[in-house]
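ARCHIVE CARD
SHELF: 3
SLOT: left
DATA:
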Amino acid sequence: MSNIDYIDDRILRVLAAEGRISNLALAERVGLSASACLRRVAALEKSGVIRGYRAVLSPEKTGIGFVAYVTVGLGVHTKESQLAFERVITRAPEVKECHNITGNVEYLLRIEVTDLAAYKEFHTEVLGTLPQVSAITSYVVMGSPKDDRA
């Protein structure tokens, strides 16, 4: 589905903000009948525009007290080196996001752990042991005035 019209766009905006909204309430918000709204949502899901729904967890309630964005530079710029790095990172529970980026480093990671000690352990025992890694820069999150990730 490549043609997202005005109604689909409205549906997507509401679902992005309120993923648990009932179909009836969603239909009312976007000006459709319940059955027409359900058909559109099903089509958006089937086409892959909507990839899934998830819960937004409270960091405080789940024990996450430390968040950092980390840039990682690789010393060797081959496909094999990237794949080896990605294999390790995808298995690391501390890594909530991993993005291959442009610029002077190859990756941007979002790390969530309990505290600074846990981050130091991840930094030393995971990132610091990977032979592909040549540079690590950490950016500690001090606050998030806007965070639309869900």
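SLOT: right
DATA:
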Amino acid sequence: MHCPFCGADDTRVIDSRLGDDGSSVRRRRSCQACGERFNTFERAELSLPWVIKNNGGREPFDEGKLRRGMQRALEKRPIDTEALEEAIVRILRKCAYGGDREISSKQLGEWIMLELREIDHVAYVRFASVYRRFEDVDAFSAEVDRLRSGQPTDTGTQLSFLEAEARRRKQ
């Protein structure tokens, strides 16, 4: 590791410990040339898939975009930021460990809705109304009715299986 102060390449690790969230390692280093001390953080680099958009275009997975979308749905809701971070980590794991090089934006949206449904029903309905492009009050009302009755959402994917599995794990 090069020293950020003098550029020397001879630095040594003085102390190592887990970062705040446990997903990184914080290392305290000392430069042998100038004596300055600095911190570095080591984090696992996940190979995330490309996202195939509805129009057929492809773009790299953007964790910031995922976070902003979920934060917008959760805006002004009494939700602990820890719950949001855990949901994001679960989605990232599904993306990284799924083994696919590409994932459809539809599948990603379904995973987001599944997580939001578990965190906060209002946030779920907010996200679903934009994501599914509800065109009238009846579509919105039908989604709220499904939510109240505990029915799986009508996604056309294996989401109902995933929801059932999530419910089973909670019991």
